[in-house]
Amino acid sequence: MKIATFNVNGINGRLPLLLEWLAEAQPDVVCLQELKAPQDKFPRKAIEQAGYGAIWSGQKSWNGVAILSRGVDPVQTRRELPGDPDDLHARYIEAAVQGVLIACLYAPNGNPAPGPKFDYKLAWYERFLVHAQALLDTEAPVILAGDYNIMPTDLDVYKPERWRDDALFRPEVREVFQRLLDQGWTDSVRSLHPQERVYTFWDYFRNAWGRDAGLRLDHLLLSPSLMPRLKRAEVDRQVRGREHASDHAPTWIEIADT
């Protein structure tokens, strides 16, 4: 079973790229972020013609998350992160697919930090930590996949010294990521590539792609029961180099069948 996460940075504007990658990679499950489309503008027909069922939570111009499943419809279990009924941002969706619970998240960026946006990011993550623990307590196989907007360690950023005060790299957010690992989640990519510089994002500015000045922002965290089944964890870097590409590349794992 191949599970991917991909911040598409505008699903309708980059639909041909997404469909091209789906045909090439043939993932079984895909978590998408930054749809940047209202609920009624999700390209459902094109996704279905590509062989995928889908659930999604849209929002005009901003945010937006979706879960695609090849050959079947995802069974939706949740459309929002619990804990704050006033938070209407489309940042979380959850579904059961082929015996695995898939959580798709798009965490807040948080810049500029310090400030209200950074406070919102930390508050959002406190809610996420509570829900992540509740998912662990079920003892079900669970994957938390998405754009976390966190670089967990110095190995996840091309020049750490330049990012110390950024909301993606401040000690507070790296501590949040460590708290997730302390709960019992495993960073799948880092577990199979412990010493490699693995990037999933390259900015559009300052020739970041050409210089390989990347960041690792997209993560797939696994519950304990899935770790023995983890076989591969990779990034489809070549997708970032294509014309009109997202600034993120698809990140994916393979887990063995039970």
Order of helices and strands: EHEHEEEEEHEHEHEHEEEE
Category from helices, strands and their pairing: alpha+beta
Largest sheet: 6 strands, mixed
Quickly name the level 1 CATH class.
Alpha Beta
Q: What is the rounded distance between the termini?
A: 10 Å
In what range is the share of β-strand residues?
Answer: 25-35%
Share of helix, binned: 10-25%
InterPro entries: AP_endonuc_1 (IPR004808), AP_endonuclease_F1_BS (IPR020847), Endo/exonu/phosph_ase_sf (IPR036691), Endo/exonuclease/phosphatase (IPR005135), ExoIII-like (IPR037493)
Family: Belongs to the DNA repair enzymes AP/ExoA family.
Site (Interaction with DNA substrate): 248
Cofactor: Mg(2+); Mn(2+)
Describe this protein's structure.
The protein has 258 residues and is of the alpha+beta class. It has one domain: Deoxyribonuclease I, Chain A (4-Layer Sandwich), CATH 3.60.10.10. 24% of the residues lie in helices and 26% in strands. The protein contains 6 helices and 14 strands. It has helices at residues 15-25, 44-49, 116-137, 171-183, 188-192, 208-211; strands at 2-7, 29-33, 52-57, 65-70, 75-78, 92-97, 100-106, 142-147, 186-187, 201-202, 214-215, 218-222, 230-235, 251-255. The strands form 3 sheets. A 6-stranded mixed sheet has the order 3-4-2-1-14-13. A hairpin with a 2-residue loop joins strand 6 (92-97) and strand 7 (100-106). It is globular, with a radius of gyration of 17 Å. The protein starts with a strand and ends with a strand. Belongs to the DNA repair enzymes AP/ExoA family. GO terms for molecular function: DNA binding; double-stranded DNA 3'-5' DNA exonuclease activity; endonuclease activity; metal ion binding. InterPro entries: AP_endonuc_1, AP_endonuclease_F1_BS, Endo/exonu/phosph_ase_sf, Endo/exonuclease/phosphatase, ExoIII-like.
